Amino acid sequence: xxxxxxxxxxxxxxxxxxxxxxxxxxxxxxxxxxxxxxxxxxxxxxxxxxxxxxxxxxxxxxxxxxxxxxxxxxxxxxxxxxxxxx
Length: 86
Fold this sequence. Notes:
Elements lengths: L7 H25 L11 H14 L29
């Protein structure tokens, strides 16, 4: 069975364009995650820790090495409260 050589050029273009778009998407995803691989299958604990890291460092992927939280961390709680009328 002969190979249709005239179909190789369009097929090559399709393969190259899928490769370029896949690599571009991977690069964009990695750039939005500060150069780290994307996270998958996150549970509630990991979401809570990501929110804590966001409040501590200003970044979802950043982590603080200082054992003492900054002073504004005490007032940046994610829990909403209501004022009690006395």
